[in-house]
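Ticket closed. Logging final result for FMN-binding flavin reductase domain protein.
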Amino acid sequence: MRIDFDPETMGSTPFYKLLTSVIVPRPIAWVSTVGQGGAANLAPHSFFTVAAVAPPVVQFTSVGRKDSLRNVEDTGEFVVNLAPEGLFEQVNATATDFPHGVSEFEAVGVEQEASLRVKPPRVAGSPVALECVVHSTMGLGNSTVVFGRVVHAVIDDEVMVDGHAEVTRLRPLSRLGKNEWGTVGEVLDLARIRYADWEGRGPEKA
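Final structure:
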């Protein structure tokens, strides 16, 4: 038996809570920006993914008009920092609704380092940072999708294995429903099946 949910009758907030409880886990873009006044802003956004490969473009969604979005629109630059398990409490704390102009780096005590290609700083304790310039933005209802072209990336050498960023060393956080967060559990490794090799191999035989 299934339960039906109608977004029109439920309203946006209850249905938003439903969506975030079933679209899981969601990777976190820990977005750093700089405001016109010079304050460095840092906030987690869990509506985040890769948008394109060539050129490399990532995207995150601002639900409402938050400082990250205002700063991106004003300056055209931002950095996506990986949200690592070891900085769990700091990641959560930077979601606090600090007044406009307050730097989350300073308020929460997150160490920053200079970026190479853009003005917003990187999170020094994050193993991965993607420096981005704004490609475009798209308004959808009460939200804005920000597309950023990656102009530079840095990765800690200690998380690299044979030229590959190893997830068990990255230890990325993810968002689940309610106040729940996810960490890396069991990792399954299964290669895709080429069509040339498919005959006689269903999923149960792979």
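The first helix runs from residue 7 to 10. No further action required.
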